[in-house]
Write a structure and sequence with these properties.
The structure is a homodimer. Chain A has helices at about 10-20, 25-30, 40, 50-60, 85, 90-105, 120-140, and strands at about 65-70, 75-80. By secondary structure, chain A is mainly α. The first copy, chain A, has one domain (about 10-135): Winged helix-like DNA-binding domain superfamily/Winged helix DNA-binding domain (Arc Repressor Mutant, subunit A), CATH 1.10.10.10. The first copy, chain A, has a two-stranded antiparallel ribbon. In chain A, a hairpin with a 2-residue loop joins β1 and β2. Chain A is globular and about 45 Å long. Chains A and B meet through α1, α2 and α6 of A and α1, α2 and α6 of B. The structure holds a DNA duplex (30 and 30 nucleotides).
Chain lengths: ~140, ~140
DNA sequence: TACTTTTGCTATTATTTTAATAGTAAAAAT
DNA sequence: ATTTTTACTATTAAAATAATAGCAAAAGTA
């Protein structure tokens, strides 16, 4: 499990946590697709291996970007949720999405994302609002 | 050299180009510290190995994020410059910097960055303006 | 109640990527 | 003419990731 930082640079330090090949895709699945369980993360197009998924979830948990809990009516499934700190990464994920959509079509076939043509700040606030309201629903079940 | 994309997701595709351990730090050095040469990139705090630096510069060049050229009065040094496409990543780098500055102080000693307390959009436009004006100066020498 | 399936992992080995370091050729400086 | 600098490449070691199998507990089904 990674734990050391390369330098005191805030950019380098952030990348030491979420700058690997998978972390931001897990956060994408949580924030944009409202995925919550190990199985759901495993089912993404990019095919993350279970051992890597497991170690990444642990790392993100250790930096308080996600929480792990069970619901009262289900002792099997673990529910992973984003903390406020991670929800604040929304703008970065949205900007990455906009940039890729705009610049990578000549190198790869890029999926069209609904609503990505709207204004940036509106996209971000909508994403956050939806995620937070989803969390509320979850907590009611609990 | 990496060349395949994991999926059609614009986020995953962007990360397939700049989502490794080093690319964004090279872009940081170029955009924020106005570094231009192999030697300057090698001298950063994070100590990138020359073989990795070399392969990353090639990859970024292949996706037209940077250009490589020599100046008329110096046949030895290669000058690497960001393209407009890469300059558009400024907002992402600034957001990463703001996020790290705000959230990682409890895990690592984070350097204070001058001006990071200013308004986000102002920081971004200033960063871009400074880089573009630096490029102008370079071209005059050429 | 017994059997099957699902979920959330861990373990293992292979493959790929990264790290560390030495070395080299051409240009520039002395 | 010799030394130093720059921009790398080459090599080997170490670490991370990929691929796959397997397993225990919970849940669903007969």
């Amino acid at each position: 499990m990674k734990s050391n930082f390369r330098s005191g640079c805030p950019i380098a330090s952030t990348l030491d946590i979420i700058g690997d090949k998978w972390s931001l895709l897990i956060l994408r699945d949580m924030l944009l697709h409202h995925k919550m369980t190990f199985k759901e993360f495993s089912s993404s197009d990019e095919q993350i291996a279970p051992s890597i998924l497991s170690s990444r979830l642990k790392l993100l948990t250790s930096y308080n970007l996600i929480t792990k809990q069970k619901q009262a009516n289900n002792k099997k499934e673990n529910i992973y949720l984003l903390t406020e700190k991670a929800i604040e990464l929304s703008s970065i994920l949205v900007d990455i999405s906009i940039w890729g959509d705009k610049h990578l079509r000549k190198f790869n076939q890029i999926n069209d994302i609904e609503g990505l043509d709207l204004e940036r700040s509106l996209i971000i606030s909508t994403v956050k609002k939806r995620y937070n309201s989803m969390i509320q629903d979850i907590k009611i079940i609990k």
